[in-house]
Amino acid sequence: MLIALCDDERAENKKLTALIEAYALRSGCDIRCRAFTSPSELLGEERFDLYLLDYFMGEMNGVELAKRLNEKFGGAVTVCYLTNYENAAVEIINNRVYADGFLKKPVDEAALYEKLDAFYKSSLNGRIELKRGGVYETLYAQDILYAEASGKKTVLHLFGGTRDYNRLISELAENELSGAQFFRIHRSFLVNMQHVVGYDAKSVTMKNGDVLSLKSKEFQSAYRRFIFRNG
């Protein structure tokens, strides 16, 4: 797992980098961390599996940086905010603004390691490898809005566009996209519940504005369970 740490306080970067390296050594997990003091510098890099972002920085705050990262990579990056401001933590929880979690500063070692445990497992489960033509492509589950059946192919709707694969949607639902975050709402649609923004008795609305037909009577209870576990 590749971690990007961005905090404009060099001392904090040094401390957290040492804690992350100690965690990797102790746990035996394949984790590498790079520290940045400048959001602009981080924006010039390739994608990381996890971003630990200071909530308040002089050049650009953490929310704006996360927004820019999402725009750059055409999907939802995994972000955990670092903050010593209670109000910021409350805003993250209530509004879920580009956030997958937060750690209160000064960061507690046990709290950090608990987060790393969860994010490491998620990073392993979140990578999907699919063959397109003669080439295997690596995708991130969090970048998939939904899958749509198209004959003997499946079209994946991503934040950055669409890609079609020579796989039946039923095969993906039982294998690569069998995680709890995906749900079959219709014979033709498999949605990523992380990116559902609304629903009624007949349809589900996705984050990109697409409205999909809903046929499953179990969707509402499944979605509520998902929100309860991940909200």
List the helices and strands and how they pair.
Layout: E1 2-6, H1 10-27, E2 32-36, H2 39-43, E3 50-54, H3 62-73, E4 79-83, H4 86-95, E5 102-104, H5 109-125, E6 127-132, E7 135-140, E8 144-150, E9 153-158, E10 161-165, H6 169-174, E11 182-186, E12 189-192, E13 196-199, E14 203-206, E15 211-213, H7 219-230
Parallel strand pairs: 1-2, 1-3, 3-4, 4-5
Antiparallel strand pairs: 6-7, 8-9, 8-12, 9-10, 11-12, 13-14, 14-15
Query: Cα distance, first to last residue?
Result: 23 Å
Strand residue percentage: 25-35%
Q: What do we call the CATH homologous superfamily of the largest domain?
A: Response regulator
Per DSSP, the total helix count is 7
| Helix fraction bin | 25-40%
The third-level CATH topology of the largest domain is Rossmann fold
What does the average pLDDT come to? 85
Alpha carbon gyration radius: 19 Å
The strands making up the biggest β-sheet line up spatially as: 2-1-3-4-5
Largest sheet, described in full?
5 strands, parallel
Question: Could you state the order of secondary-structure elements as H and E?
Answer: EHEHEHEHEHEEEEEHEEEEEH
Helix-strand category: alpha/beta
User: Into how many domains do the coordinates divide?
Assistant: 2
Unreliable parts: none
Question: Got a strand count?
Answer: 15
- Quick one: overall form? globular
Just give the CATH class of the largest domain. Alpha Beta
The appropriate CATH architecture of the largest domain is 3-Layer(aba) Sandwich
